[in-house]
Each structure stands twice: as C-alpha cells, then as structure tokens.
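User: Show me sequence and structure for the first protein, then do the same for the second.

Assistant: Starting with the first protein.
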Amino acid sequence: MMINSNDYRNHDGYRGSFNRLSKLVFGIEFEAWYQKGAWDDRYICHSFIADDEVIANVSVSKMSLVINGESIRALQIGTVMTHPEHRGKGLSKQLMEHVLDTYEDTCDLFFLFANRTVLEFYPKFGFAPFPEHQFHLNIPDEPQANIISLDKLDVSREEHWNLIKKKISSRNPISKHFGVTNTEGLFQFYALNVYPECLYYSHTDDAIIVFEHEGDLMHLYDIVSDKEVDVEALVSRITTEQTRQIRFHFTPDQIIEKVYTEPFGKNEDVLFIKSLSDLGKLPAFCIPKLAHA
C-alpha cells in the first residue's frame, strides 16, 4: 500500500478507481469534469492505493481567498473519503498529516467544510470552526416589472461552454469581504454536475448568473463578470411575481446594509480553518458556495 501524491488525473486506471470510490462514498464522480478539460493542476488527489485501487483519499484545491480586500494564499481540503472495507485503519489521519506537511510552506491557511458527523476529527489537526452566516433580502409584494434578456446556458453546447470558460477566467471575486479567486475548475464542476439547469447569461449585465427558485425563495449562487455588477439592480430584474425572498450564497458586499443576517442552520456544513497567522475578528461572511471543494 502506498501514498500516491502525484497528479494522477491523466492516469486512466487511477482516475477510474478514484471515480468509483467517490461515487460509492458521495454519489458523485469527476469524469465529465475531466473530459471537459476542467480538472486542472489546482485540484490534486493524495491517495492510498492498494492493488492499483484507490482506497482512501484527501484532495487539495489551490486558490486564493480575498478577506477584507487582502489576497491570501489558501488551500482547501476536500473529497476526504475511505472505502468502507478500509475504514478504522487511520488512513484519513495519515493523509491529512501528509497534506498539511506537504503544503505548509506554500499557503497562508488551510480550510475545509465538514458535515456534522465528523466535527471532532479536524480539531485534532489544528483546525478551528468558524461560523458562517446566511444573507436574505425580502422582496416587496408589488408585482415586478422585469425587463431583462436572459439566455439559459446549456453546458453541452460548445459555444455556451466556451462563454462560461471565458467569463470565469477573467471574473472579479464575488466579494471583497470574503471572496475567492483561482477557482475556475470548481465553478466548472458545479456547472456540469450540480447546477446545469441554473446557468443564465444576462446581456444587460454581461454576466453569468447562477440561480434557482424554491417556491417563493430564490437561491442566488453566483454572479460571474469581469465588471462591477449592480447587484441590487440585477436582483430587481430577475425576481418574479412569486419571489418573496432571496438567499445569497455569498457575501453580498454592495447591499450588506439592506439584507438580514443569521447563522447557518444546523443541517449545513461547518467551515474549519487552520491559519498560519492571526485572522483577527471577521465580520459576518459566507464563503461562495460554488467555491466549496
């Protein structure tokens, strides 16, 4: 049994085994992402391999965080998984220690998102939980007179996929209070696997908007543009007569005084951070959902 720390995304056998394990553990796989050329060298698997099969894994995603306007080198840990037949052997612990040792000198902080069944695991490695907040905006009852040109994007159409790649390659961070950069690959993963029906291009804003309705609640996941988009104006145009509330899945800097804020619910993943310097007191924030690895 060995730890393979190399970037094996182009090794068909290991990649196939990694996909089988991720589908078994999480119900997701990465093959379409790879075939689209979106699995880049910022997402690296560190795996235990036995008999040419991936049996445990901890992945890293290299990116930068923007916190209060300052860019910070960050490494996000994700896809932490072990095959059911090999659990209880300490493999995840060894991989976590390996990753932290490998990248300690290349970043300013590590962070990850954990579900509530494993909250006691990560503090053993120096991680501390940081509370995130959700931001809501109530919409008045008056009917909305919306005039906006939205094109629904289809990731299977080459011209639409090229537009997505072009926009995310030159995008502004969605928030300067707590945003991310260098996450093109992650956005493409969500576009392909999670929100393919929620992607729109706004000609008015020259921006890609990722949103969906859940009854009278609109979930606004992301706004992708290389320009400063007027969020309040955009919101007023994309709401419908049924929309009564918007939840922002990022920190809405521009209208932070107009939204109401509350802590994340008990069913949402918990953010853990291991910082190599003092972050100080952070205002209410939400790491953009489409940057979760």
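Switching to the second protein now.
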Amino acid sequence: MNLESPTVTVEKSAQELFDLLSDVRNFEKLMPENIAKFEVIGDDAFIFGLKGMPEIKLKMKEKVAPNKIVLGAASDKLPFTLVADINSASDNSSNVQLLFEGEFNAMMCMMIKGPISKFIETLAGNMSKL
C-alpha cells in the first residue's frame, strides 16, 4: 500500500527543514490534535498513539541531507516506512511530501487506508509549525 500526502511549501530552506525533521522530538509538533501519546525513546526513535489506534514505534532508518528522511516501524508486525521527500523551492522555502509505504493484507489495507491517509496529510499540513 502506497499513500502520498499533498506536497506542501514550508518557509524554510531544504537544509533547515531537514535538520528539524532529523530531530525526532520535533515530530510531536506535527502530530494531529487527537494524539493520545508521544514519547521520545532515544535519539532516533519515538512512540506515538492516536485515540482508538494501537501505539506505533517509529525509528529513523535513513537520512540523505538535505532531501530525504526515512522513518520505519520498529516492529515487524506492521512493516512500513514514512519518507519525507524535501525539495528546495528557493533559498528560504522548500516543498515537502510524505510518502507512506507498507505491506499489509487486503483486510488491513481497507481498515487503515483512510486513517493513515488523513494522518500523513495532517503531518504534512503541520510542517509550517516547525
């Protein structure tokens, strides 16, 4: 299952946005309002939970300055990645799109497609809060 957020423009250089997203503590500012839990559990990992959903542990998997950050599920039960694709628009602004990629059975896809789509749209929409 592959999902894409809308591309959003952020008033920060690509490097500045990359640096902010490289710090997992900053993801708390991107979370939707219905967040039930957010806990940093290391320099490269955090756990978050949304109301009515199981908690998910995300770990920094890859960083390619200043264009790409890859977070992945720390559990093999729900294997997925969340990629922040950052492109410079000007010296002081950049475009970012979030890409979700996961391997789930058809039943799971039907259950999570809507909530995950809304979740990554919210994360992208909140980029300006960084």
